[in-house]
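Standup notes, structure subgroup. Blocker cleared on the zinc ion input:
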Amino acid sequence: MGKVSIALRGWRFDETEVFDDDGELRPLEEVSEETRRRLVRLRVVAGEPCNVCYLLNGSKSDCNVARIVYGEPLGEVLLCPDHEPEFLYWYREAGGSDHRGEERFADIFHEWFAEGNRAPEGYGGLDHVDTEPDRVPSPDIDGDVPELEEAIEELDDEDLDALGTDYSSVT
Ligand SMILES: [Zn+2]
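Run returned:
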């Protein structure tokens, strides 16, 4: 069973859960609640700037678009490839992994970085914290994700609201 990333690298989905035999995204009603929450959140965060760029620049227009997402929906960290090592260092070496799953996960990383902490020069960012190999190529990450858009549009607003409110009670 393969794991795939959609739109951004980092969050991984069970290929057979999110895609049907024709490679189309399944309707959101058919996937688990956790998967649905991530898919809906991806639509919001895809195209947003890298958090670290934003901390450094303070202006969205000067930031790289994030290509990587870590953490949980609503507490996610968005990163460009240049800044992934900062996150990986924090997560692995500076106590970040202790906060895994916490609502303030992203805030704690932002605070750490804002205090002037940095990964050492040359810290390797190439190996992903999830060690499971990518066996299936991700759908095109540079463009939109039309199937995802479509699936989300098919959900009515009430469903989306329910997802939003459900989430706060889950965390
Ligand atoms: Zn960046």
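Discussed briefly. The first helix runs from residue 15 to 18.
Next: hand off to the docking folks.
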